[in-house]
Amino acid sequence: MTVSKSKSFGIVGAGVSGLLLANQLVAEGYRVHLFGEKDERNQILGCWRDSITPSPQINHLLGSWESWEFKFDEDNFSQEGLRYRYEVIDGKAMKQSIEKSLQQNPNCFRKTKNVADIKQLISSYKVSFEKASESVEVDFLVDTRPPRRTSSCCIQQFVGLYLKISPSEIGLDRPLIMDYGPWEDEQDSSVFIYALPLSSNRVLVEATSFNTKVREEDFFRRHIEKWWAIRTDKNLMEKTECKESGILPMGETKPLFRLENSFGAAGGATRPATGYTLQGIERQLLATSRWTLNGGIPNFEFSKLSQFMDSKFLRVLRNEPESMRMIFHRMSRGMTGDEFARFLVDRFSIGVAVKVIRKMPKLLFLRNYFR
């Protein structure tokens, strides 16, 4: 038995996952209470696809490419997807568009206050808010707020700059998935550059690190400056429009409320070894037709094969983060574009897994297996 249309949903958190879920539920005729401040952050959402881009994501598509680049010291190469393509979505524009649409929908009740407390009653949930004495009671509750990281959880941290420049001026004609140098004399081996041509006169350049600790923003800006300096003599500050930044969990997390009420990253949508979340959210959205009042949100997990591979990568990342450069080099160099994409979107076979394992430095993984 699916949730009756007479029942109300409460969605805590108005980021990408909360907005996409609210958008889908009101379209299906449900009454939705959406709680949380508007998410005005800049946000680019990248993913690999072999099928039609769903709505509303397709309305905010910035680019779609059938090939992408990698750079590791002097080894520069590209991959080409025969079935898969790499896409980027303007997350900020999509969030703004969904907010506007929900405001006009009589089935959506929007409260732009952050939730302070959730109490589970006998057959409903009571939601109270920060700096407010009021509360709202709903029949079914979904928590999409980012989860807490556990002490053993690794992170992917990034700082990106939106720059007013033609991609051709800096030699960027397709996505640069990873650039591990050399673009400075003493480059930290845990940091790489990710760069995208967003339009004919706009690019995103992002410094990203897989690590176990949070770094200051200036650390990432210095790496962007070094990368920029070898490509152009234009003033970086004058070309900068705005920035984006974030910290993605890679490993075990704890939801702010209950796991059985969690959706999005808190509900397991983030692939632990990659940080990709959008397609995990999309897979969760496909399962909403199975929701029941008694059973709650269906448990979402990546495949057993992904869980096995991710556990090995994360063990190495926790102990030797500087080795990720070598791991990504060998993996991307040894795979076709479609195999690489399938691996990242959790649609890979045991054959692809074996191919990845064969390319990996065996001593590195054996050393960390016993740590």
Tell me about this structure.
By secondary structure, the protein is an alpha+beta fold. The chain folds into 3 domains: 8-43 and 89-148 and 251-290, FAD/NAD(P)-binding domain; 154-250, D-Amino Acid Oxidase, Chain A, domain 2 (2-Layer Sandwich), CATH 3.30.9; 304-369, no CATH class. 28% of the residues lie in helices and 30% in strands. The protein contains 10 helices and 19 strands. The chain has a 7-stranded mixed sheet, sandwiched between helices. It has a 4-stranded parallel sheet with strand order 8-2-1-12, with helices on one face. Strand 10 and strand 11 (135-138) form a beta hairpin. The longest helix is centred in the C-terminal third of the chain and has 16 residues, at 304-319. The radius of gyration is 21 Å and the shape is globular. The N and C termini lie far apart (48 Å).
Strand-helix topology:
Blueprint: E1 8-12, H1 16-27, E2 31-35, E3 44-49, E4 61-65, E5 67-72, E6 75-80, E7 85-90, H2 91-103, E8 108-111, E9 115-120, E10 125-129, E11 135-138, E12 140-143, E13 148-149, E14 154-163, E15 176-179, E16 191-199, E17 202-211, H3 217-229, H4 236-239, E18 240-250, E19 253-254, H5 278-286, H6 304-319, H7 324-333, H8 337-344, H9 350-359, H10 362-369
Parallel strand pairs: 1-2, 1-12, 2-8, 5-15
Antiparallel strand pairs: 3-7, 4-7, 5-6, 9-10, 10-11, 13-19, 14-17, 14-18, 15-16, 16-17
